[in-house]
Amino acid sequence: MKMDLKKPIPTTESEIIEFKQSTGEWKEIIETICAFSNTKGGKIIIGVSKTGKLPGVDIGKDTIERLTNQISQNTDPNIHPRITVKNMDKKSIIVIEVKESSDHLVLAFGKPFKRVGKSTIRMTKDEYEKLILEKHKDKLYFDSHLCRGATLKDIDDEKVKWFLKKAKIGRNLNIELKISVKEILQKLNLLKDDKLTNATILLFGKEPQNFFLQAEVRCARFKGNEPVKPFIDMKIFSGNIIEQVDSALKFILEHISMKVYLAGKKEREEKYEYPPDALREAIINAICHRDYRTVGHIQIRIFDDRLEIWNPGLLPESLTLKDLKKKHKSIPRNPLIANSFFLIKFIEQWGTGTNDMINLCSEWELPEPLFEHITGDFVVTFRKEITESFLREKGLNERQIKAVTYVKEIRNITNKEYCKLNEVSKRTASNELKDLVLKEVFKITGEGKRGLRYILK
Around Cβ 368, how many Cβ atoms within 10 Å? Predict the structure, then answer.
C-alpha cells in the first residue's frame, strides 16, 4: 500500500537511520536490520542515496513480498519488520521499520551485527557470548535452580521464622509472621513454581548436606606455618549456611591469641590478634559468594603467622583482585543467598566488604589482607606481620628487606633515611622505595619532598 510521506525524510544517516539506493543491496539491508534489532531499533529507507538525494526505487509486483521473504529467511530468530511504500516528489521509497529486540541476540546469515554510529559492524565473539550469558543468567545461577527431590518437609520451620524476625528488625521486612512457611518462602522469592530452590535448602534445610555435600566449612589449626599434619585442632561445620558463619568464627576465636595493648596512658586492654569483624566479613563473603557447583569446601587455615580463608571459585570476570582494594560494585555469584544475607544484615550489597577488611586491619596495626587466586580458589590471608619469606617471594632485594624491618620498628622511613640505612644514592633510594610501593609493601604518606614518608601497607 502506498501512502504520502507526512514527515520529511532525514537528510543524513545516524545510529537509527540507514539509506539504501535499491533492493539490490538486500544482503546489506538484512545485516542492518540485524544491527538495528541488536541496538536501539531504527529505519532503513530504500531509494535514497548516501548523500540524501532521492532517486527513488522501482517497485515491481512482487518486490515487497520477495524482500519480506529474504529478511525472514536470513534472520534468526526470524524478523518481520514493518515495510511500507511511500511517495515523495512523485518517486517511491521503501521504509523498513525495525524494533529493538528484547535480548539483542538476532543473527543475519548466522552472524551477529550491531549499530555503532552510522555503521553496521559485526559483533565480536566475546560480545555475543556475554549477551547469551546475560539472557540466561537466571538459569546459570546455582542458587536459583530447583533442588531435586527437596520438599517442604526438608525445611526447618523454626529457622525460617527466626530469619523472618531478624529481617523484620534489621531491614523492616514487611512479611507477616502469621502466614505459612510456604508463603514466607514465596515472598522471599525462594520458591519457583511452588518448588524449593537450592538457596532454600542451603539457607533453611534441616540437613543441607544430604543434597550438597560440598556445603561445609572445614577449619583447622596447624602447628607452625605449613599445612601439615598433625592438626592442633580440626572441625567440619555442616548444617545451614547461616549457622556456619558463627560456628566458623567461634572456632577461629578459640584458636587465636589475645594481645595486651595500651588503650590510654595507663589503661591496658586485651584484643584478638586479628580483628573479629574483618574475619567475620571474610567468612560471610566465602559462604555467600562461593561457587557451589564445585566439589571443594570452604577452608579456614590457622597458622602461627597467618590465617587463610579459601573460597571455592574465582572472582567474577568483571572484577579483578586490584578492584577489591578500591571502590567497586557488588557482583554476587548467588543472588538469592546474597539477598537473604542482606535481609539479616550479614552483608550490605555495596561492594564495601573487602575495603572494610583492609580498614579494620589498619586499625589493628596489621598488614593489609592479601587477596589471591590460588588453584581455582579465591583466598584471603590475614597476616600478623610481613615476613621475610613473603618479601623474598615479592622479589625484594636485601636493602628493601632491611628497610621493611626498619619500618616495622620505627613506623616509617624517608628517602634520606633509606640512603643512610643502606648507604646508597638518593636516586637508588627513590627507585627502590617506588618499587616497594608498586609491590604494595609500602604506601606513601605526607606531602611535598620534605614531608614524604613511606609506611607499611
Answer: 21
For residue 335, whether the previous peptide bond is cis, meaning omega lies within 30 degrees of 0, is no
Closest C-alpha to 298, from 351, 358, 229, 245: 245
pLDDT at 1 over 50: no
* Domain positions in the chain: 2-134, 136-385, 388-456
Domain 2-134 belongs to what architecture? Answer: 2-Layer Sandwich (3.30)
Asked whether the beta carbons of 353 and 281 are under 8 A apart, the reply is: yes
Question: In CATH, what is the architecture of 136-385?
Answer: 2-Layer Sandwich (3.30)
Which CATH class, in words, describes the domain spanning 388-456? mainly alpha
Distance CA 304, CA 191 (A): 45
pLDDT band at 454 (very low <50, low <70, confident <90, very high): very high
Residue 3 — very low, low, confident or very high, per pLDDT cuts 50/70/90?
A: very low
Among candidate residues 406, 403, 369, the one with its CA nearest the CA of residue 384: 369
pLDDT digits (tens, 9 = 90+) for 145-194: 999 999 999 999 999 999 999 999 999 999 999 999 999 999 999 999 89
